[in-house]
Amino acid sequence: MAIFLSFAVIAILGLILGIGLAFADKKLKVEKDEKLLLLEEAMPGANCGGCGYAGCSAYAEAVFKGEAEPGLCSPGGQALAEKMGEILGLKVDVKEKMVAFIACRGNSEVTKKAYEYKGMEDCNALSLLLGGNLECKEGCLHMGSCAKVCPAGAISLDSENSYVVDKEKCIGCKKCVAVCPNGVIRMVPYSAEYLVACNNTESGAKVRKSCQRGCIGCRICVNKVDSSPFVVENNLSHNDYLKNQENAAKAAELCPAKCIIKR
């Protein structure tokens, strides 16, 4: 009988506490603003962090509070930015989508090895061993760490065994940029066609000894092309995307190392 009474008391107390919690939840519940709910529903749900916030909900809340601009979500692109502006009654100035680019086309055929490596297939692990197993210490290490962290599956090996980014799949989350120990991966405008696929800032003579496709800083892409969009800084050429791109193809044609590529 005593045991039965104990169970009965516990059950009654549980029921009372349950009713109390349900009542408190209803009374104390903070209702979300309808516009915030609409913003959260519009988000792609990738939670990639490319916008600078912990996830899609955090970014939506920041936009709702006026702490962030609507055009920061790369996966959502212009369509999402316009949708967010429509929800909030704001005029949205959408910037061009930025996508990842691997500035290296070195491979086992064109880049000299410093030593044979047998170990963990991880770029950061390899870079700890004398900066990697290649003579070029600023290029791609080919361990595929960038491809492993890409949530969109946008990075893969091409026919020449070089890692490349599919700009159509890239969501601009920058996870590949963060994981690369040599800073080979950079964000470029989606519309950019001609890019310098090299990251080596050594002198031309040293570059020639380590890689057949490395930029030697010869300035042909600048001096031999009228209104060239290319600029050479610190022995390395790069495309100034703010300049007229009309003659970019000519620069690529004249490049002796063929490191200016069309994407």
TrEMBL record:
Cellular component aspect of the GO annotation: plasma membrane
Gene3D superfamilies in the record: 3.30.70.20, Electron transport complex subunit B, putative Fe-S cluster
Localisation per UniProt entry: Cell membrane
UniProt function note: Part of a membrane-bound complex that couples electron transfer with translocation of ions across the membrane.
Cofactor remark from the record: Binds 3 [4Fe-4S] clusters.
Gene: rnfB
UniProt: [4Fe-4S] cluster 2 binding residues: C136, C140, C146, C180
The family this protein is said to belong to: Belongs to the 4Fe4S bacterial-type ferredoxin family. RnfB subfamily.
GO biological process annotation, one example: electron transport chain
Coiled-coil segments on the chain, per record: none
InterPro entries reported for this sequence: 4Fe-4S_dom, 4Fe4S_Fe-S-bd, 4Fe4S_Fe_S_CS, 4Fe4S_Ferredoxin_RnfB, Elect_transpt_cplx_RnfB/RsxB
Binding-site residues for [4Fe-4S] cluster 1, renumbered to this chain: C48, C51, C56, C73
Subunit details: The complex is composed of six subunits: RnfA, RnfB, RnfC, RnfD, RnfE and RnfG.
Gene Ontology MF terms in the entry: 4 iron, 4 sulfur cluster binding; electron transfer activity; metal ion binding
EC number of the protein: 7.-.-.-
Sequence positions that bind [4Fe-4S] cluster 3: C150, C170, C173, C176
Keywords on record: 4Fe-4S, Cell membrane, Electron transport, Iron, Iron-sulfur, Membrane, Metal-binding, Repeat, Translocase, Transport
UniProt-annotated stretches for the region Hydrophobic: 1-25
Cofactor or coenzyme needed: [4Fe-4S] cluster
Keyword Repeat on entry: yes
Name the record gives this protein: Ion-translocating oxidoreductase complex subunit B
Top-rank taxon: Bacteria
Organism: Candidatus Ornithospirochaeta avicola
Major enzyme class: translocase
